[in-house]
Amino acid sequence: KVKAPQTRIFNVDDQIIRMNQHVHFPTRPMFGVIGVAPASGSVSTFLAGRHGGNLDDRMNGIGATVHMPVFQSGAMLSIGDMHASMGDGEISGTGVEIGGRGQIKVELIKNRIAEYPITETATHWYTHGAIEENGTLTEALTIACEEAAKLLVDQWGFTIEDAFIFLSVAGDAGIAQSTHGSAGGPGSVIARMGVPKIGACPSPFKA
C-alpha cells in the first residue's frame, strides 16, 4: 500500500496555487460532490453511484453542465466538496481543499433518461461509471463506455457497432477517482468516457 502524504498547506491567491517556492500552477476549481437521493435507502456522501455523489471528477468545474438522473420527488440535490484543483484519480486521496461560493443554476428537464450522471462542457460530454467498495477500474470504465454507447444509439441513431468504433477512435477514457477503493479502504472507483461534440452528436441528448 502507498502511504498517504502528510497534510500540506497550499497558498491560493490570484488564481495561482503555490505549493512551495518552486512549484506553482493555475487554479482549476471544481465540486467533488454532486448527487441526488438514491432510488432506495440512504447513502453516504463519501460514495458515488447512479445517484452521483462523490464523483470527484475535475470536469465538474466552472461552466460545466451536469445532467443528473432523478429518483425521488424533489431530487434532494446535494453539492459540496470544493477544490481549487484536483488531478485525475486524486491518487493521494486529496485535492486542494477550499471553502468558497459557487453560482449554480438548477433546471428540471423531463423525459431525458440516463443511468448515471453526465457532465457536459464546451467541447465534450462525459458519461460516468462508478463501482463501490471492492470494485475495479475496469468495471467502472466498462459502465462509462456502455453508457456513452447507449446514448449514441438511443439519442443519435448510431448502430452499436458504429458507437463503439467512434468511441474507440475519437473518445477519451479517463479516471475521475481511483484512490480509496484501490487502497483497500471504503470508497468508490469512478471512470468517465469523453465524447467529443460533433455535428452527429453535439450533446448527450437530442433537444
The helix content is 10-25%
The average pLDDT score comes to: 90
Question: Helical region count?
Answer: 2
- Taking all Cα atoms into account, the compactness measure Rg is 17 Å
Distance between the termini: 47 Å
| Total E-strand runs | 13
Largest beta sheet, briefly? 5 strands, antiparallel
Helix/strand/pairing category? alpha+beta
Oligomer type:
single chain
Beta-strand residue percentage: 25-35%
Strand order of the largest sheet: 5-6-4-8-9
> How would you sum up the global shape?
globular
Order of helices and strands: EEEEEEEEEEEHHEE
| Poorly predicted runs | none
Task: Output the keywords.
single chain; 207 residues; alpha+beta; five-stranded antiparallel sheet; 2 helices; globular
What does this structure look like?
The chain is α+β, with helices and mostly antiparallel strands and 207 residues long. The chain contains two helices and 13 strands. It has helices at residues 137-156, 160-170, and strands spanning 11-13, 16-18, 24-26, 30-35, 48-49, 52-53, 65-67, 78-85, 96-97, 118-120, 124-132, 172-177, 188-196. α1 crosses α2 (160-170). The radius of gyration is 17 Å and the shape is globular.
